[in-house]
Specification:
alpha/beta; about 35% helix; 12 helices; two-stranded antiparallel sheet; 8-stranded mixed beta sheet; 12 strands; about 325 residues
């Protein structure tokens, strides 16, 4: 089987870090061409730092990492240190990265990569706000026809919002960028809160990471230990949702997930529902479907996959 070529666009974030590790642990299925960073969970200087820390933790200092947009298209940046800590990667104590950032801008890397590879051969995997992806689509409209698909973590329907009563964080940070992406005509698969809130890092699942007794396994356990304190208190659940690894897990094992092909529109004007993903789950409008919106996941299967793959590094 030929490995799927992907670009991860990310704002690490502990859960972003686990997603990157899952991709790097799966080279026979995933050919990670590069990591592009965006401002989101923390500002850009920290997301680029954190991405390189994770690459070095995985023994991949050769992985190209690019700095992208440092603010949303039209709004002030909203960050989430209250969830991820002041560095965005609080929890484990990991050395500062020594690998360099690439000199090219992340948006230019995305455009050049899509143009250099055969059409419909590269999948984009955004794990944060969609600013880099939207900027690339605006700067180079021809790439829309070259993207195999966009598989993203963002949005919600039944689970409503996690940063406002109606909006999920990644979409809320840059709703105008999300609007551009969802109107692009590119094939889109969405991993929303409806899925990720079923992927809980329980004590037993976190113990399984720690029991690997490897630097990566221990670091993942420490990340999720830190990350879960906020959501366990917020939701009263047995563990915190592990959002972003669901994107990579879907590429590796789509049979673990289920959803519907529906229409999704992004609210960009209402102060009450700004950033809401208006998902026509019940197909009550005549708006054409534009995304596969996933709602369910086999959580045990997901964490079995995660644990076995993390054990490889």
């Amino acid at each position: 089987m030929t490995a799927r070529k992907i670009i991860i666009d990310t704002d690490p974030g502990q859960d972003d870090a686990v997603a990157i590790l899952l991709a790097l642990a799966s080279p026979s299925e995933i050919d990670l061409l590069g990591i592009t960073c965006v401002a989101g969970n923390v500002p850009l200087d920290l997301t680029t730092r954190n991405a390189r820390i994770i690459c070095e933790l995985a023994g991949r200092p050769d992985m190209p990492v690019f700095a992208g947009c440092d603010r949303p298209l039209r709004r002030a940046l909203v960050t989430a240190e209250h969830v991820h800590g002041k560095t965005g990667l609080d929890g484990p104590t990991l050395p500062e990265p020594t690998m360099p950032l690439q000199s090219a801008h992340a948006v230019d890397f995305i455009i050049d990569t899509l143009r250099q590879h055969p059409a419909n051969s590269v999948t984009l995997c955004p794990l944060g706000p969609l600013t880099n992806i939207a900027t690339a689509l605006q700067k180079a409209p021809d790439i829309a026809g070259r993207i195999e698909q966009i598989v993203l973590m963002g949005g919600a329907y039944f689970e409503v919002g996690n940063i406002t009563p109606t909006a999920e964080f990644n979409i809320y940070v840059d709703p105008e960028a999300a609007d551009i992406v969802f109107k692009s005509g590119v094939k889109i698969t969405v991993l929303p809160l409806d899925v990720t809130h079923k992927a809980l890092v329980t004590a037993a699942r976190n113990d399984a990471f720690r029991a690997l007794n490897t630097p990566v396994g221990i670091a993942v356990a420490q990340m999720t230990d830190f990350f879960e304190r906020f959501d366990k208190e917020k939701y009263g659940s047995d563990g915190a949702p592990l959002h972003d690894p669901c994107v990579i897990a879907y590429l590796l094992a789509p049979q673990l997930f289920a959803g519907r092909h529906i229409n999704i529109e992004i609210e960009t004007t209402s102060p009450l529902t700004l950033g809401m993903t208006v998902a026509d789950w019940w197909r009550v409008t005549d708006r054409a479907p534009n995304a596969l919106f996933l709602r369910d996941v086999d959580a045990d299967g997901l964490f079995d996959l995660l644990t076995h793959r993390i054990a490889r590094i």
